[in-house]
């Protein structure tokens, strides 16, 4: 009888240890992902080093679902360059091409943008009474891309329950796997 009790207690202790080990592993994965993201932010000098193209406004250059890799740098902008910018009061960044530069007397350069697939420039998207974008609006310049890989993000945003189910399944998988 004592052997059975000792075996059950040993199994419980092992399960607790395994669960603690899996929780720590999950924490390490999340922490590593955050550290990689923050490192990319520092290296690229951009608040968002990777973005997903959410609309067809830049077709044929970029398709909906393409992932763009950004770099801000310190050089001046050029006409034809593809930039990602944020407008005050809007959370979603916009990916468009620089079509015109406006040099100010103090040497700063503002830009006007337009989507390749759009008929007009972006002044209608800017904040009221804003005619140009300046450096504070620009998150980064497109330096490379992966086609269609971002469709996973778009699908998860379009169907939030799918996102929660996938995150839950991944969490369960990490917590229940033995090695």
From TrEMBL:
Chain ranges of the Peptidase S24/S26A/S26B/S26C domain:
36-141
- Extract the GO molecular function terms from the UniProt entry: serine-type endopeptidase activity; signal peptidase activity
Keyword field: Endoplasmic reticulum, Hydrolase, Membrane, Protease, Signal-anchor, Transmembrane, Transmembrane helix
Q: Where in the cell is it found?
A: Endoplasmic reticulum membrane
Give membrane topology per the record.
Answer: Single-pass type II membrane protein
Q: What does this protein do?
A: Catalytic component of the signal peptidase complex (SPC) which catalyzes the cleavage of N-terminal signal sequences from nascent proteins as they are translocated into the lumen of the endoplasmic reticulum. Specifically cleaves N-terminal signal peptides that contain a hydrophobic alpha-helix (h-region) shorter than 18-20 amino acids.
Which family does the record claim for this protein? Answer: Belongs to the peptidase S26B family.
Q: What is this protein called?
A: Signal peptidase complex catalytic subunit SEC11
Protein source organism: Hemiselmis tepida
